[in-house]
Amino acid sequence: MRSDAGWGLKLGAAAGLLFLHLPLLLIFLYAFTTEEKSFQFPPPGLTIKWFVTAWFERPDIWGPLYLSIKVAAIATVLALIFGTLAAAALSRAKFYGKDSLSLLFILPIALPGIITGIALRSAFDIMNLPFSTWTIVLGHATFCIVVVYNNVLARFRRINSYMVEASMDLGADGFQTFRYVVLPQIASALLAGGMLAFALSFDEVIVTTFTAGQQSTLPIWMLQELIRPRQRPVTNVVAIIVIAVTFIPILCAYYLTREGEHTGGGGK
Amino acid sequence: MRGLSDLFYKRPGALTAMLLGPPLAWIGIVYIGSLLALLLQSFYHLDDFSGVIIHEFTLSTYGQLFESSNLQTIGRTVAMAAIVTIASAIIAFPIAYYAARFARGKTKALFYLAVMMPLWSSYLVKVYAWKLILAKEGIITWAAGGLGLGGALEALLATPVIGGSSLSFSYIGTFLVLLYIWLPYMILPLQAALERVPKNFIEASADLGATPRQTFRTVILPLAMPGVIAGSIFTFSLTLGDYIIPQIVGNSRPFIGQAVYTLQGTAGDIPLAAAFTVVPMLIMGVYLALAKRAGAFDAL
């Protein structure tokens, strides 16, 4: 058996990875271009003035940025509570219909986001619920629950159930066992799930367009700039901010859960 | 507190019920409830003259789906989803295979990160990056010119159906962006499936006289299929429902997502929009049932 990869395979893998990574580099390059009306390549000149412009001359960025952070924070807290409860229940119990329930909990990411969006919108219509920050949160929390659920469930499966029994045998009650035995073991999975949920919510646009009404989150602001560009390089500056805000939590989540389990399977 | 704790110990079912209650209520009421509300709307219809939604049971809205322009929209979307899925499986395979079979230690971690980062980075930022790449004055035109391939690019764009005034306004562009955005969703489950192929199966196959090529075709590939199917759930479903990518990169002919968006928004025809969303739900329902049969959920 060959223990080394052939050239064809190496080339295929390298080309695939390049395809995944080169496009994002262009976002950085174009943030420094002097051309603001088109996407001319190579850029006619380089400047850092757009970072200054974005900070001082575009107050329309701040409101959406603040709203996005607020929504992501609330949705993350809700997702942590509900996702952990669901994972705890479904990891330990055996009962009829459990498989269907598991499927139910991944449905919000398995079905296209537009369905979630329009479904929520028609429900708000029927209940005469006016659009607000809370309608955005409701949508975001629904798919963030799934992310936390997935992460925490994977961790629960690895926890040795004898430790819980030993703790009970040694006289701890259920709450003490949870506090001193279970919680320390799932803490990093919670943190990772929470960070991924935050990044997912901060970046979400498809469901949000249906649940936001007149308000703009940062992705919605970006979408408007994409359709009707004003100063194109400023959009790039904001894109870099978005990359930074999502990149850091994801990297942290990776390091928190890297021992043999995957944090994948998230989606919109 | 102690009494409650004892109760939970003696009756584990009570604890499960209490744990499961709140999240189930959330998903059940907020999510499933909304889906049902949507489904209900699809049985109403819009009065053409007054523009008012008539709240009476009818199947006429579903009938409208079979008008030729709507059928074309559905066909176009399903075809694009299928092509994107196949292309992403082909591109994903070498990456997943290398990462699962040959990468060790640091390289493996690097591969994993290299797939995770694009997966989790901002959707809109990624779409925007492709707007920059595909623009008429952008890097592809520049590179094609530099390599003396400007004529080939123009010939490609002049091709009927897939061509357009620039890559940014053609099906080729839409395809490339969809492929780029959903590719990581194919790589991860595929890699997970390949990791699970037992080493001794491969050794046994070699011992029994199979060439590496035969081993690959008859042992590794069949065992990787659940991973491909698991990945295709994402690539297929996400392509079916996307309405932002074809709106930003593509020609004016709509996909299902865009049709839904326009119908519920400017057209105000929520019943038809709701009926339209049932199409991807049905397709995904059948798809998920088949995938479950093929054992794809273990690879998720």
Task: Tell me about this structure.
- The complex is a heterodimer of chains A (268) and B (300).
- Chain A is an all-alpha fold.
- Helices cover 74% and strands 0% of the residues of chain A.
- Chain A has one domain: MetI-like fold, CATH 1.10.3720.10.
- The longest helix of chain A has 31 residues.
- The radius of gyration of chain A is 22 Å and the shape is globular.
- With 300 residues, chain B is an all-alpha fold.
- Chain B folds into 2 domains: 31 residues, no CATH class; 231 residues, MetI-like fold, CATH 1.10.3720.10.
- Chain B has a two-stranded antiparallel ribbon.
- In chain B, helix 1 crosses helix 2 and helix 13 runs antiparallel to helix 14.
- The two termini of chain B are 39 Å apart.
- The interface between A and B is large, with 99 and 103 residues.
Set out the fold topology.
The complex is a heterodimer of chains A (268) and B (300).
Chain A: H1 7-30, H2 49-56, H3 62-92, H4 98-110, H5 113-126, H6 133-158, H7 161-169, H8 174-203, H9 206-211, H10 218-227, H11 232-257
Helix pairs in contact in A: 2-11, 3-6, 3-8, 3-10, 4-6, 6-8, 7-8, 8-11, 10-11
Chain B: H1 2-10, H2 12-41, E1 45-46, E2 53-54, H3 60-64, H4 68-101, H5 105-120, H6 123-134, H7 139-146, H8 150-158, H9 171-195, H10 199-207, H11 212-241, H12 245-248, H13 256-264, H14 270-293
Antiparallel strand pairs in B: 1-2
Helix pairs in contact in B: 1-2, 2-14, 4-9, 4-11, 5-9, 6-9, 7-8, 9-11, 10-11, 11-14, 13-14
